[in-house]
């Protein structure tokens, strides 16, 4: 049983209990929290709260959530675009619409399901049964290269390089608007949005340092093709940083508010390059994932071909 103890911030004064909890505990869905409330597992002092209850600033709320039962993750014969593989690591080119690891609502068809079939029992166990071998992830609608570890030694090495920000990670993106300067840097800490806890935002206090370097590759009428290099790797970093300077990613319906004239599935973002020191040899290894067909076609359209 996991216990959460929350003190209501003034920002949430007057919120319905279920809405407040969904924003305060983003890892739990609102529908699941409503179930917990109905089972009288949410209290303020000795008083059980209902979903329609309104919360007040300073109110202390306690809820008990039963430990989730981890489902058996099954190997699935899913085609994998393998860019490089040896006894320690495997680098893949993830397509659009593929979730990296299982989560509520996505227990099949994920990259992990495919990896379990391809690698059998040779995946790092550091991140548990839901994320075997997974060192880092990219969003469902982001394409491109990511590395998976086959043993714990390789996993520890890559995790340390990620922590030290020594891994080379460059992305390609198409953004709204024409960027006038040739290159630039966004150095702005990121944290949970105060208005929507499921989103990230540039924050003044309490955020984690985040740095994105960008370079213009090509300009079009109303759009810019850019390379973004990550110095840090925060959740949704490129999407939030580019939006913060007025150049939201084309197709990003979460952080951008501009309509796209193109039929796109999510943001136009591709993890192009990944480079790091090999966990066994110590030699620098860099792999590139070619642009997906939709991205190439979109560039041709913007060029007027």
Give the key terms:
305 residues; alpha+beta; nine-stranded mixed sheet; four-stranded antiparallel sheet; 6 helices; 15 strands; 18% helix
Spell out the blueprint of helices and strands:
Blueprint: E1 2-7, H1 17-24, H2 30-38, E2 42-44, E3 47-48, E4 60-65, E5 82-85, E6 89-94, H3 111-119, E7 143-149, H4 152-163, E8 168-176, E9 183-187, E10 190-192, E11 200-202, E12 211-219, E13 223-230, H5 237-244, E14 269-277, E15 284-288, H6 293-302
Parallel strand pairs: 7-14
Antiparallel strand pairs: 1-4, 2-3, 2-4, 5-6, 6-7, 8-13, 8-14, 9-12, 10-11, 12-13, 14-15
Helix pairs in contact: 1-2
* Number of distinct beta strands: 15
Order of helices and strands: EHHEEEEEHEHEEEEEEHEEH
Name the poorly predicted regions.
none
Query: What's the overall geometry?
Result: globular
> What count of helical segments does DSSP give?
6
Task: Compute the CA-based radius of gyration.
Answer: 21 Å
Mean pLDDT: 91
- How much β-strand is present in the residues? 25-35%
Report the end-to-end length measured between terminal Cα atoms.
59 Å
Sheet of most strands: 9 strands, mixed
Q: Structural class, from secondary structure content?
A: alpha+beta
Oligomer category: single chain
Helix content: 10-25%
């Amino acid at each position: 049983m996991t216990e959460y103890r929350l003190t209501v911030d003034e920002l949430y004064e007057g919120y319905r209990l279920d809405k407040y909890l969904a924003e305060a505990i983003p890892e739990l869905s609102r529908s699941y929290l409503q179930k917990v409330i109905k089972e009288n597992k949410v209290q303020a002092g000795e008083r059980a709260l209902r979903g329609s209850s309104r919360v007040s600033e300073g109110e202390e709320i306690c809820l008990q959530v039963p430990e989730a039962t981890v489902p058996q993750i099954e190997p699935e014969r899913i085609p994998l675009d393998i860019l490089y593989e040896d006894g320690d690591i495997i680098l893949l080119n993830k397509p659009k619409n593929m979730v990296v690891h299982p989560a509520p609502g996505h227990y099949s068809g994920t990259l992990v399901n495919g990896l379990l079939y391809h690698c059998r029992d040779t995946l790092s166990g550091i991140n548990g049964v839901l994320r075997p071998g997974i060192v880092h992830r990219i969003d469902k609608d982001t394409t491109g290269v990511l590395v998976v570890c086959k043993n714990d030694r390789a996993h520890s090495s890559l995790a340390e390089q990620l922590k030290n920000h020594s891994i080379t990670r460059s992305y390609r993106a198409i953004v709204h608007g024409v960027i006038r300067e040739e290159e630039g840097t966004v150095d702005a800490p990121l944290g949970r949005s105060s208005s929507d806890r499921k989103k990230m935002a540039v924050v003044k206090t309490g955020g984690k340092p985040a740095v994105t370097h960008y370079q213009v590759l090509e300009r079009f009428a109303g759009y810019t093709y850019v390379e973004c290099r990550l110095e840090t790797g925060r959740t949704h970093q490129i999407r939030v940083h580019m939006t913060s300077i007025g150049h939201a990613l084309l197709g990003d319906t979460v952080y951008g508010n501009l309509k796209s004239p193109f039929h796109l599935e999510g943001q136009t973002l591709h993890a192009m390059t990944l480079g790091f020191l090999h966990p066994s040899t110590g030699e620098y290894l860099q792999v590139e994932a070619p642009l997906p067909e939709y991205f190439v076609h979109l560039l041709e359209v913007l060029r007027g071909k």
